[in-house]
Design goal:
Number of domains: 1
Helix content: 40-55%
CATH architecture: 2-Layer Sandwich
Radius of gyration: 14 Å
Order of helices and strands: EHHEHHEHHEH
Distance between the termini: 30 Å
Number of strands: 4
Largest sheet: 4 strands, antiparallel
Strand order of the largest sheet: 2-3-1-4
Shape: globular
Bound molecules: inosine-5'-diphosphate, magnesium ion
Number of helices: 7
């Protein structure tokens, strides 16, 4: 089924640091995702902890929050047909070692924690995550 959706994408500090913003955005736009909102911000560890709350019981939670708040990030709302699953496909597997050829994480990811991008994993979470960064 094809449906126009919105999803949240984050370009993480490792990718911003390596000047990969435009390369990553062009992968989205070439694949029919429109960047509806876009901002470069630097969040606090507390904000990262709130954003990643679903992972609070995981052993990597503290590092994850420290990492997302370690430098500037770019947060975007992507819109298009099946945007949530399309973005996940374009991102590739969480661990860049397991990511398919030509996915963002295969091309640019350094490691499972420095994996260059975040993407919402469901329509419901996309709504929550978009609201987290773009409250109107
Ligand atoms: P996802 O980003 O592919 O949706 P999640 O399982 O939601 O992956 O995990 C969120 C983030 O937490 C990942 O992008 C990655 O940076 C980090 N992470 C996940 N699993 C591990 C791990 O086993 N060790 C270290 N970091 C991890
Ligand atoms: Mg996830």
């Amino acid at each position: 089924m094809s449906k126009v959706e919105q999803t949240l994408s984050i370009i993480k500090p490792d990718a911003v640091e390596r000047n990969l913003i435009e390369n990553i955005k062009s992968i989205f736009t070439k694949n029919n995702l429109v960047i509806k909102e876009n901002k470069k911000i630097h969040i606090t560890k507390e904000e990262a902890a709130e954003f990643y709350k679903v992972h609070q019981s995981k052993p990597f939670y503290d590092n994850l929050c420290l990492y997302l708040s370690s430098g500037p990030i770019v947060v975007m709302v992507l819109e298009g047909i099946n945007a949530v699953s399309l973005n996940r496909e374009l991102m590739g597997a969480t661990d860049p070692k397991n990511a398919e050829e030509n996915t963002i994480r295969k091309l640019y990811g350094i490691s499972i924690d420095k994996n260059s991008v975040h993407g919402s994993d469901s329509i419901e979470n996309a709504k929550k995550e978009i609201n987290f960064f773009f409250k109107d």
